[in-house]
Write a structure and sequence with these properties.
155 residues, globular, Aminopeptidase, alpha+beta, 5 strands, five-stranded mixed sheet
Length: 155
């Protein structure tokens, strides 16, 4: 692991870092348009970063975002506890296989502990072997089906 890598939990004043994460996600996921073409304005991102339900951390090298993780803290209703959902996690090609993703997940494990979450959970697409290997090494696999149900259109 390179000594110049720094991991930072993002707060309300870190809008530029979050935009750097979005750019890096677009490249890493080969979906630049989705992550960069319609980004919210600074006020939206500042409010998101200040909320108690959104969590983001970035890995920096040389002042540039080379990894990032974003997720949502879900408050459960059946018990007084929370779960932390990892929504997006990516590492720049040049920094892969160097422990960056594991360190980012470690930051989320610490956040989960501090905020009363008993577990982190994440989805991986079939065929995404590197992600599946990473998550298998860190937790217990549950095979589930995922469904996208569209919202009703307003009249």
């Amino acid at each position: 692991m390179s000594e110049n890598l720094q991991i930072q939990l993002l707060g309300a004043d870190d809008v530029a870092a979050l935009r750097g994460m979005l750019d890096m996600f677009g490249t890493a996921f080969e979906d630049v348009e989705h992550y960069t073409s319609r980004q919210p304005d600074d006020a939206w991102l500042r409010d998101l970063l200040a909320s108690t339900t959104f969590v983001a951390a970035a890995a920096f090298a040389g002042g540039r975002v080379v990894g990032g993780i974003a997720g949502y803290l879900l408050t459960k209703f059946e018990q007084a506890r929370r779960e932390l959902y990892i929504y997006d996690l990516a590492v720049d090609d040049a920094w892969r296989r160097r422990g960056v993703a594991t360190r980012l997940i470690g930051v989320f494990q610490d956040v989960a502990s501090r905020r009363g979450a008993h577990v982190l959970f994440v989805q991986a697409d079939r065929g995404d072997d590197p992600a599946i290997a990473l998550y298998t090494g860190l937790g217990t696999r549950a095979d589930v089906l995922h469904f996208d149900i569209p919202a009703r259109q307003a009249d």
